Amino acid sequence: MANSPLVTYTRLSPNHSGKRTHTIDRITPHAVVGQLSVERICDCFKDSNRQASCNYCIGADGRIGLCVDEQNRSWCSSSRDNDQRAVTIECASDMTEPYTMKPEVYAALVDLCADICRRNGKKRLLWIADRDKALSYELKSDEMLLTVHRWFARKSCPGNWLFGKLVDLAHAVNSQLGK
Questions:
Q1: Measured distance between the N- and C-terminal CA atoms of the chain, rounded to whole angstroms
Q2: Where are the alpha helices (DSSP H) in the chain?
Q3: How far is CA 80 from CA 63, 89, 99, in A?
Q4: Which of 51, 73, 90, 157 is deepest in the core (most CB within 10 A)?
Q5: Rounded to whole angstroms, what are the CA distances from 7 to 2, 25, 63, 80, 137?
Q6: pLDDT bracket for residue 1 (50, 70, 90)
Q7: In Å, how far are 50, 125, 129, 140 from 57, measured between CA atoms?
Q8: By the 8 A CB rule, do 98 and 159 touch?
Q9: Which of 11, 19, 13, 74 is nearest to 37 (CA)?
Q10: pLDDT tens, position by position, 68-118
Q11: Where are the beta strands (DSSP E) in 32-112?
Q12: Sign (positive or negative) of CA dihedral 133, 137, 143, 149
């Protein structure tokens, strides 16, 4: 399993569980809560005492960084089960709710999600806003599901700005995938 060719900066975190025990069929975007660069976001996960990481990050300028190889499970969404299945992406955002993301960040998120789907043999990205329906949905082999951190912990992540755009994110990615 290869990492995204869209990555322009790599700083690998020691915070991961090694090889995944489930195939990738989810993407979980997060708000990093700060208009940070990819270098600064990756720096957040360099200390093993932090007990957190992500697979990819997107800086305020739209550049994409790699923190945990895609073949490995990051520690990002407060759910071992979700992190085994999901590629996790920390996105630069404003520091207060609704955690708005710059257009460059959102555009990079669309491109990265489409790339993740393609490289993992998925032809369609799904957003099901109802947590219980989403987590019980039986994915077809060519489908990928968006999940959010707030479903697994008492957090607002990814913030109301991105949460309100997840249907648009799925449509934009599916458009790139030819759906």
A1: 24
A2: 38-44, 80-85, 103-119, 131-136, 159-163, 166-176
A3: 27, 16, 25
A4: 90
A5: 11, 20, 7, 25, 31
A6: low
A7: 16, 19, 23, 27
A8: yes
A9: 11
A10: 999 999 999 999 999 999 999 999 999 999 999 999 999 999 999 999 999
A11: 56-58, 64-66, 72-74, 86-91
A12: positive
The two tokens of residue 72 are 């490995």
Label residues 71-81 b or e (16+ Cβ within 10 Å = b).
Answer: ebbbbbbbbee
Closest alpha carbon to 24 in 150, 113, 134, 156: 113
Residue 82 vs residues 35, 60, 69, 151, 172: alpha-carbon distances, Å? 26, 26, 16, 10, 23
- Written as one letter, the residue type at 58 is I
Q: Distance between CA atoms of 156 and 78, rounded to whole angstroms?
A: 13
Residue type, 127: W
- Read off the pLDDT of residues 113-142 as tens digits, 9 standing for 90 and up: 999 999 999 999 999 999 999 999 999 999
One-character DSSP codes across 130-165: SHHHHHH----TTEEEE--GGGTSS--TTHHHHHTT
